[in-house]
Amino acid sequence: MNTWNKVGIAVAAVTYATVGAHAQSVVLFSNVDTISGGTVSAVGNQVTSVLGTTANLSAGLPSTFLTAAGLSGSYISDVYTVNYTVGTGSFQLLDSGSNVVLGGTLGSSANLYSSSDNPSFILFGNGILTSGTWLDAIRIASAGTANNQIIGATLGFTGLPGGRVGADQLYLSVTAVPEPAEWAAMGMLGTSLGGLLIRSRRRAK
In Å, what is the CA distance from 66 to each residue of 61, 103, 129? Predict the structure, then answer.
């Protein structure tokens, strides 16, 4: 068997093992709507918590997510509450019936608060979602299956000046994270191909 046939077999094997790595992001909140209400707490120039913030879901969500989550056509106009505490990283998203639809832990990567009299702030975080009635729906929409994929989240809050007491906008994007076995398989592809090419060169000499 020649080198390139071996390369083809290696690529096919690893591609099969890493199908789950090709996940798509699902953007639940996209900063389109102004958030009404909510309470932002801060110490100095750092936000400590954003509580009771409400928003509508984004338009254009994957039908696989809507079906798996059991959401009807009225999902856009429903009200959702977000609770996020920076110190603990605790995150919860609740629907209008106070059911936890997503929960997990997020760490803040950018946090700047300007003024309590004229609130202006920016807060971003990244982390993992571990609970909630939407968790498997996100897995199905982003990775095609609900086989316990790890779900990563990117969260962003912004507040604009003008005397507002809450957050003005919310961004929340969720994506399935490749399993350790998939990362290992992708690494194996690199080392396998490298070994094949090296041996091929040696034989050529």
Answer: 7, 18, 18
Domain carrying residue 51: 22-177
pLDDT tens profile 56-92: 888 889 999 999 999 876 666 788 999 999 999 999 9
| CA proximity to 82, closest of 51, 105, 61 | 51
Instruction: Provide the pairing of β-strand 169-177 with 26-30.
Output: antiparallel
Scored b (16 or more CB within 10 A) or e, 120-141 reads ebebbbebebeebebbbbbbbb
Total number of domains in the chain:
1
The structure's pTM equals 0.75
Cα-based distances in Å from 45 to 75, 76, 115, 126: 36, 34, 8, 20
Contact 80, 54 (CB under 8 A): yes
